[in-house]
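ok so i was messing around last nite and threw this chain in just to see what happens. nothing serious, just curious
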Amino acid sequence: MDKVFEALSSTPRRKILAYLSGSDLTAGEIAARFEMTKPSISRHLSVLENAGLIEGTKEGQFMRYSLVQENLVNTLNGFVQEVCPVSRPLKKESRQKGDKSQ
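result:
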């Protein structure tokens, strides 16, 4: 979970995620939307990929990136469940019922 929040701590990385939420993009298409060097974009993409938020697939000489929506949703849901005052008692109750059934 730490890698995800580290990845989300950067404005350019959040913008990349927003762009990818609309459609899959090549690294070049992503870079064209920013005023930074391609190596900088590549580093941002690498952080997002290492956090499991995006995945790149090779298409000829290009890398096409897409969101890994399941990972982002599950990570954020897990975080919300930990800090939500309503969810904590429900999770505790669920664990206790699970212990009794064993």
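not much to say yet. DSSP finds six helices and three strands in the chain.
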